[in-house]
TrEMBL record, chain A:
Keyword Membrane part of the UniProt annotation: yes
Region (Disordered) residue spans: 1-41
Transmembrane domains' residue ranges: 100-122, 134-156
Protein name per UniProt: DUF485 domain-containing protein
Keywords for the protein's UniProt record, in alphabetical order: Membrane, Transmembrane, Transmembrane helix
Highest taxon, organism lineage: Bacteria
Compositional bias (Basic and acidic residues): 18-29
Matches recorded under Pfam families: DUF485
From TrEMBL, chain B:
Gene3D superfamilies: Sodium/glucose cotransporter (1.20.1730.10)
Descriptive protein name: Cation acetate symporter
Classification lineage: Bacteria, Bacillati, Actinomycetota, Actinomycetes, Kitasatosporales
Keyword Cell inner membrane assigned: no
UniProtKB keywords: Cell membrane, Membrane, Symport, Transmembrane, Transmembrane helix, Transport
Native species: Streptomyces griseicoloratus
Length: 186, 530
């Protein structure tokens, strides 16, 4: 208990422990705070959750309010997703994804359209020789291949280094919260 | 083309059929007929396996024979196709692959229906998926028929008809017995064969020119009879403005259509996680990019070694350029090397068609059973019976594709593929992107965006010179041609996006915040993914 509660406090403030305690309570009355059930990897994943993967000191999400209500089970499950969507950790993952993908899509799409339009409307430009028999058209065509390979590599690297870990932790947290809601309502 | 070629090619092709049937039996033995197993092959393929399978699904005979033939005849203009087919994968990688893997279960409609009222959306997305698949299937069947005529010399109508029927029957067996697991392994085997053949031929071409790409270009330009113009765009699409607009339209359809092809989307469900889906796309981009780079060398090699005149003499559309190149590189028509290489290329081309046809049939039978049947029935079908429906649907779609393939025998294969891409880009891509990224998207918007892309795309084709009004069209006798372009993409793709927007802003329904949150969280984190 001690060790698993210390981590979130150090990382993002005291509110994570509320999430953790709630989850612990959802496990049922038998598992009190000192029980060995805290060795459960699921609990560990949850405790290290929120705000931490982003590395930001942003406020952790509040506990879903519908948790206290009884009966409205689908509503409660939906609230979990709204809750996660508003959390700083998720916004960080989404921001990282969008900050890479939006400029990259714009860039390669414009470059491709310019290439196709130039190929059909400006043959004079495309015929300009570069070296030997290789002309601008050939360089531009092979350039499309090259940029495609480069962007693929850059995207895969960006996702692996900047997104995967945070997304995976959010996945476990979200699933655990959703499970907690479902368990609590039944 | 002598009897030797035919016998050897038939022998190799029969071996391929035997091996793939063995795979099918192995894959279907002692497996439970669950939907998970039938549509997604158990979801446990590795990224590398799935990458090869995606490449196998994507590299059709139209690419292998068609693009290199176009390059051999028209030089640079053929290369524009390879670029479009490859760049399209960035759309798939950035916007579609991971998110679709996280949100959906088996089909495109799963992703959209998660946020909307399920029934109308499933019917719409299912209809457009089946339409795209059938168009794509017909293209492959027509290709198979003409390949037989071209490669085996059996120019008779009967030989073509029996090939179409035979290919159709085989694919129904693969799909209905083996499901996704067998189909995936067939794609992998085919991708390895195709890449192996292409690498060998490319190496032979480069050896012939002592690794000097410059000399290859110069020789090709010189032998083509066009000189410099051969290496510059414009030989095929440089005519009037209509021809140029047509090409831009095709270019748009190619780059946006791939992300809406149902048989490509369903491949992402065969791996366990979004991360694996991403890595399989990276694999496939590497394989597909390398393949298209090699087709450029093959096309130029065919122009330089065989010469456009000989290519055109054998087949006006250039489809036999690669087999002729193989014959020449192997040592000529009467040598053993030439015979073997020719037979290998012919067998690889058949294998290619067969595998692609199996992949598309599986995807469309999933759409019929999982989307259309499950929605049009009063109660949801049980998973077990849904698989039975899918097996029956595979037989039905096979029959439809065989019939249409026989009817459309004289249509141009590349055109049919371009049309399938245009419909996919107009009807499937807008609804997919809107539901993944637009918070305010509604059910009406989703339905409008599917039909708003699908109907104009099909209608514009019916009114285009492809169907009537010119000597090459399907019905040369009548003239109801009101749309000048062959490919509808430049008009129908914006219409699909506009219709989705219009349907959303005019609908009284308030978008469900919680459902949007669920889609967004699930798509980016993988929470709750199956």
């Amino acid at each position: 208990m001690q060790s698993s509660n210390e981590r979130p406090r150090g990382a993002g403030g005291g509110r994570e422990s509320t999430v953790g305690d709630r989850a612990a309570r959802d496990r049922g009355p038998a598992e009190t705070s000192a029980s060995p059930a805290y060795d459960d990897p699921w609990y560990d994943a949850l405790a290290s959750g929120w705000a931490e993967p982003a590395g930001a000191a942003a406020p952790a999400p509040a506990v879903p309010p519908a948790r206290a209500e009884t009966g409205a089970e689908p509503r409660a499950a939906a609230d979990v997703y709204l809750e996660v969507q508003r959390s700083a950790a998720f916004r960080e993952v989404r921001g990282r994804y969008r900050r890479f993908v939006v400029p990259a899509v714009v860039a390669f799409f414009v470059w491709y359209v310019v290439y196709v339009v130039a190929a059909t409307t400006a043959p004079g430009l495309m015929a300009r020789p570069v070296t030997g028999a290789v002309n601008v058209a050939m360089v531009a065509g092979l350039g499309q291949f090259l940029t495609t390979f480069l962007l693929t590599w850059a995207y895969a690297r960006h996702a692996r280094l900047r997104r995967d870990r945070a997304a995976l932790e959010l996945r476990w947290d979200t699933q655990e919260l959703a499970r907690g809601v479902r368990g609590g309502a039944s | 083309m002598t009897g030797d070629h035919q016998t050897l090619a038939l022998l190799l092709f029969s071996t391929f059929v035997a091996v793939t049937l063995a795979i099918t039996t192995w894959a279907s033995r002692s497996r439970q007929g669950s939907a998970e197993e039938f549509y997604a092959g158990g979801r446990l393929f590795s990224p590398m396996e799935n990458g090869f399978a995606i490449a196998g699904d994507y590299m059709s005979a139209a690419s292998f024979l068609g693009i290199s033939g176009l390059i051999a005849l028209y030089g640079y203009d053929g290369m524009l196709y390879s670029v479009g087919f490859l760049v399209a994968w960035l759309v798939v990688l950035f916007l579609v692959a991971e998110l679709v893997r996280n949100c959906g279960r088996f089909t495109l409609a799963d992703v959209v229906a998660a946020r909307m009222r399920e029934r109308p959306v499933r019917i719409a997305a299912g209809t457009s998926s089946v339409t795209v698949s059938v168009l794509y299937l017909v293209a492959q069947m027509v290709g198979a028929g003409s390949l037989v005529a071209l490669l085996l010399g059996g120019t008779g109508e009967a030989a073509q008809a029996w090939t179409v029927i035979g290919v159709g029957a085989l694919m129904v067996i693969y799909v209905s017995l083996g499901g996704m697991r067998a189909t995936t392994w067939i794609q992998i085997v085919k991708a390895v064969l195709l890449l192996g053949g292409t690498v060998a031929l490319t190496a032979l071409v480069l050896v012939r020119f002592h690794g000097d790409f410059d000399r290859l270009l110069l020789t090709a330009a010189e032998r083509s009879g066009h000189g410099e113009a051969f290496l510059v765009p414009g030989l095929k699409y440089g005519g009037d403005w209509i021809a140029r607009a047509d090409f831009i339209s095709l270019g748009l359809a190619l780059v946006l259509g791939t992300a809406g092809l149902p048989h490509i989307l369903s491949r992402f469900y065969t791996v366990p996680t979004a991360r694996a889906a991403r890595r399989s796309v990276v694999w496939s981009i590497g394989l597909i990019g390398g393949f298209y780079l090699m087709t450029i060398v093959l096309g130029l090699g065919a122009a330089a070694v065989v010469g456009p005149d000989a290519v055109r003499e054998s087949n006006a559309a250039g489809n036999t350029a690669v087999p002729l190149l193989a014959l020449d590189l192997g040592g000529g028509a009467d040598s053993t090397g030439g015979t073997v290489l020719f037979a290998v290329v012919a067998a690889v081309a058949f294998a290619t068609i067969l595998a692609v046809v199996a992949g598309v049939t599986l995807a469309s039978s999933a759409s019929v059973a999982h989307d259309l049947y499950a929605s049009l029935r009063r109660r949801r079908a049980e998973p077990r019976s849904e698989v039975t429906v899918a097996r029956v649907a595979a037989v039905g779609i096979g029959a439809v594709a065989i019939a249409l393939g026989l009817l459309a025998r004289d249509l141009n294969v590349a055109f049919l593929v371009g049309l399938a891409f245009a419909v996919a880009a107009s009807a499937n891509l807008p609804v997919l992107l809107y539901s993944l990224f637009w918070r305010g998207f509604t059910t009406r918007g989703a339905v409008w965006s599917v039909y708003g892309g699908l109907v104009p795309a099909v209608l514009l084709v019916l009114l285009s010179p492809v169907v009537s009004g010119s000597p090459q069209s399907l019905f040369p006798g009548v003239d109801f041609q009101y749309f000048p372009l062959q490919n509808p993409g430049i008009v129908s793709i914006p219409l699909g996006f506009a219709a989705g927007w219009l349907g959303t802003v005019t609908s009284a329904e308030t978008p469900d915040e919680a459902k949007h949150a669920e889609t967004e969280v699930r798509s980016l984190t993988g929470a709750g993914a199956v």
